[in-house]
Amino acid sequence: MSQPIAVDTSSHHSSVPSPEQYRDALKRATDAIAPVWPLDQWIAVNPWWGLKHQPIEQVSQALSRRAGQPMTMPAEFYRNAWESGRITPQDLQQALRQGGYAYTEQSLVSYLATPPKPVTPLRSAWDSLAGHDGFEPLAESCASYFDHHQQRWASRAVPSLYHFWKTAAQHDLRWPKAQRQALHTLPDDPAAAVAQIAEDWALTPEAFEALAHTLLLRVNGWASWCQGIGWHTAHQQAEAGITQLAAMVLAWEWIGVVQLTSTQQSEWFAQWQTAGAAITSPHEALWCWQHAYELGYQRTLAITLAAPSAEFSSAPKVQAAFCIDVRSERFRRHLEQATPTVATLGVAGFFAMPVADAATGPGRAQPRVPGLLKPTYRVGSLQPQQRGVQRYQKESQRQSVRHAKYAPLSTFTLVETTGIAWGWKLIKDSLRKQATVPQCEAPAGLFHTYDGEPIARHEKIALAKNLLTLLGTPTASLLVLVGHDSQSENNPHHAGLTCGACGGQGGGMNARVAAALLNDLEVQQAVQHAGMTLPSPFHVLAATHCTLTDRVHVYRDEQMPEALEDALAAFESGVHVAGEATRLERAPDLGVDDADPIERLKTFATRGADWSQPRPEWGLVNNAALILAPRARTQGKALEGRAFLHDYHPEQDPEGKVLEGLMMAPMLVASWINLQYYASTVVPGLYGAGNKLLHSVVGGHVGVIEGNSPQLRIGLPEQSLRDGEKLHHEPLRLTVVIDAPRERIEAIIERQPVVADLINHRWLWLTRMGDNGLERYSPEGWQPVAV
């Protein structure tokens, strides 16, 4: 077929929408795709972030039609939970009351026995064309375009992703001449191409939005990467952002449509004209079961929190501030039990230091902040001399070798000249017995990111006051800021184990920056003049908690007063005992059965050094709750490594400003982490990374593909969720627990639309610690969590 089929669109829409309406529809479709970050700056992402303004059940219905799967587990999962007692009749009855579902207990149980057939997903034109592999050609083009580091032969410069694809496709002899000629008739400008296609089809704006979103989901990994460019590499957005890919998928579908028969075209148009309309899903009952499943967890959490707290020292000698990361919960509990003179605090693990690390060499500075923030300051200087000439030169040599490996002649010359050296490195790395966490050097100083000037005194004071406010003003003479890190070899997803929020970077550097800042005598004097009382003496140390081995390394300094040596010794003894206890608690889930503590530690460390180990640790698996409350509310209570713990003292925050900041930052980050685990579990084909054993890294740091498919896989791999036989992660929406008055919480919901969307549309559950236990918020009022 050499020319596009002429299609009569008069019956599809009586009045053709304006170009502005189509542009708005396309914007809504692209906004529905969430961003992703590079592997080396990995952060957990809520894949439905752009849809948070809609109820989760409504988004699930749309996803059922557009991607073929709802956002819940299959009926068999809930049947097993019901039959095993994980979901109780009490949970189901409470879900029916609170959710307003039009079911009875008996009808819900019957539903699980004979669930209806899945919703028929919307079809692309390419689904009707035999002999074609759908949207993989577009994925191949994306892989080639973004594969800056691994492609062997340099492509000539092209102005945009769309133009790169269109030019290459017109000369791709794998495709019939008719397809290549049809593509040639489309404009070279992506916006003009979209406008022409929209005019040709004359769909309603709602149908056009549904179509564009559905097509983007066919290349969801690359769509997420293109969306991410606008977040973390904004200067590339015009050339490679998601609007470029949206033009590609629409053009590709247009090529498919013109190859259909007249009957097939009529069916295609009829399908999409109704695609934007709301539908009633036959699987709404699954959301009632999911609700009951989550109430089951909330019931056990409420019982745990209602139990008496362990006694703790009112005048600790050491306070240790840990990241809110769920992996810190076990360690904190064991540390406090081992050493009563140590009290622990919870705070976001970048310690309120919005910095990028520019001290590691000639490469780009590594952001060490949550993905929703931008670094304000750089650690280290901007001049190579100040970074250390030897380190700079060494890193430059390494990068030269990396680039040389991918040059056209590297197959011959590089192997001939460096093959033996690289062979020895492979052998040495393979024989390494234990993985160790790289320790960060002391920061040289703080400098502005935009002009390289040193940070001013008033900025130091503001940073210090903010951190001390989040910590609740320290009372112990020795404060230890404990960042966390992990270590694993041959693991593209290593950054995801290091941190689920701060760009895949460990918190040790942030802890060292914050410690140096708080130890500045001028800063201490200034914050005390501002009304904050500090102990005397007062000193701050930094440390790193390795989440692989549960060892803690303290960065000592010569400035610490000698009077604090005993307190430090007690802390170091306590973290040693706590590490052993935490490893013992974690061992069964990892299949580690060593009885001897020393051998157990060796086994844990060996897991990180083992190149064949797909699961060095479980990461943030089973995360389920965020608790904003004084540590006294949770101390001594086994939360099973499932809760993010951030200190919040309601009596020190009468205006609710601190709480508002916590609900706008740590709560959003915890929700992103939680929903990425949830999405990777309930919709693994779309939002999971697949099998790590089949992964290949694309673009050096862009992401991974699975097997020989060019589709970019995002989210979490199977090995982070399953143990090989069964699911290890419980797919639950985050339960947020706040110790604060109702009025304070409600005022923040009223002021912050983003918070209101997440809560009112059930992307997370909000509860508070009431006089009679946990009570859960809803727009209709607060309801008790039955125990």
TrEMBL record:
<dbReference type="InterPro" id="IPR018752">
    <property type="entry name" value="DabA"/>
</dbReference>
<dbReference type="GO" id="GO:0005886">
    <property type="term" value="C:plasma membrane"/>
</dbReference>
<keyword id="KW-0862">Zinc</keyword>
<protein>
    <recommendedName>
        <fullName>Probable inorganic carbon transporter subunit DabA</fullName>
    </recommendedName>
</protein>
<keyword id="KW-0479">Metal-binding</keyword>
<comment type="similarity">
    <text>Belongs to the inorganic carbon transporter (TC 9.A.2) DabA family.</text>
</comment>
<feature type="binding site">
    <location>
        <position position="484"/>
    </location>
    <ligand>
        <name>Zn(2+)</name>
    </ligand>
</feature>
<comment type="subunit">
    <text>Forms a complex with DabB.</text>
</comment>
<feature type="binding site">
    <location>
        <position position="325"/>
    </location>
    <ligand>
        <name>Zn(2+)</name>
    </ligand>
</feature>
<feature type="compositionally biased region" description="Polar residues">
    <location>
        <begin position="1"/>
        <end position="18"/>
    </location>
</feature>
<comment type="function">
    <text>Part of an energy-coupled inorganic carbon pump.</text>
</comment>
<dbReference type="GO" id="GO:0008270">
    <property type="term" value="F:zinc ion binding"/>
</dbReference>
<feature type="binding site">
    <location>
        <position position="499"/>
    </location>
    <ligand>
        <name>Zn(2+)</name>
    </ligand>
</feature>
<keyword id="KW-1003">Cell membrane</keyword>
<keyword id="KW-0813">Transport</keyword>
<feature type="region of interest" description="Disordered">
    <location>
        <begin position="1"/>
        <end position="21"/>
    </location>
</feature>
<dbReference type="Pfam" id="PF10070">
    <property type="entry name" value="DabA"/>
</dbReference>
<feature type="binding site">
    <location>
        <position position="323"/>
    </location>
    <ligand>
        <name>Zn(2+)</name>
    </ligand>
</feature>
<keyword id="KW-0472">Membrane</keyword>
